[in-house]
């Protein structure tokens, strides 16, 4: 079936819209079973997606993973339509094109590993620290830059950032549970008051005190 997809804006327009997908229990099709597919499936599974892999040749990492449904055969016309999100990661351009066209025709979001122009979704590089997720995209113009920046941010954002987030989230939950509002409080002042340094030094209670002091002085 011919694609009825809008043509993507040319690279360089800065028009990617960032979202966070919740994939738990949702069906994701990965077409292709090589190294690139394996890397994508690893993260999809970690995010709780129900992953199906379709490819004549599937690497052991995927074939041996009980959480992944594998079909050792070529992609069948139209099957992208049965899933919420589809990744085309074969080494055959015409197959990736067909997967893309099927997905677009069915209104299913699609990522094509071999061509940014055939992606309604591109994958950013990412740094995770617990609930914190920092992503880096270049509109597909330089994945190498995304990788380089990701490595720099990994060095910058140590495990203490995850602790910082936990401390903030706990206090925010406490305020809300007590019926209060979290707006209008000086969170930025608290964050600028040395909380991270206290956490780095192992003084989590001192960080919590700094936070409470800043928030209570701004709530009056
Ligand atoms: C459009 C996109 C589609 C998509 O979403 O897959 C895409 C497309 C292509 N990548 C290619 C090459 C490389 N990709 C990487 C790495 C990553 N690529 C990722 C995403 C994306 N890659 C999407 C756009 C992201 C953006 O907006 O920047 C990352 C960020 C995320 C991820 O894949 O999970 C992950 C880093 C993860 C990390 O380490 O943090 C490296 C670097 C390396 O391996 O060190 C290289 C070699 C260097 C270079 O080319 O820059 C090629 C040519 C293939 C060929 O020639 O055969 C194409 C196709 C084309 O451009 O035509
Ligand atoms: N987005 C990214 O980060 C990157 C993307 N790429 C692109 O990703 C693509 C795949 O790369 P690799 O995994 O290294 O290739 P690979 O050669 O290891 O695997 C190709 C896979 O495609 C499958 N395949 C072939 N015909 C098929 C069909 N009709 N139906 C279903 N599956 C089919 C094969 O069985 C195999 O599992 C390449 O086109 C490459 O340009 C490469 C590097 C980085």
UniProtKB/TrEMBL annotation:
The entry's keywords: NAD, Oxidoreductase, Porphyrin biosynthesis
Occurrences of domain Siroheme synthase central (ranges): 129-155
Domain of life: Bacteria
EC number(s) reported in the record: 1.3.1.76
Keyword check for Heme: no
Recorded metabolic or biological pathway in which this protein acts: Porphyrin-containing compound metabolism; siroheme biosynthesis; sirohydrochlorin from precorrin-2: step 1/1
SUPFAM superfamilies documented for this protein: NAD(P)-binding Rossmann-fold domains (SSF51735), Siroheme synthase middle domains-like (SSF75615)
Biological process according to GO: siroheme biosynthetic process
Catalysed conversion reaction: precorrin-2 + NAD(+) = sirohydrochlorin + NADH + 2 H(+)
Molecular function, one GO term: precorrin-2 dehydrogenase activity
Protein name: precorrin-2 dehydrogenase
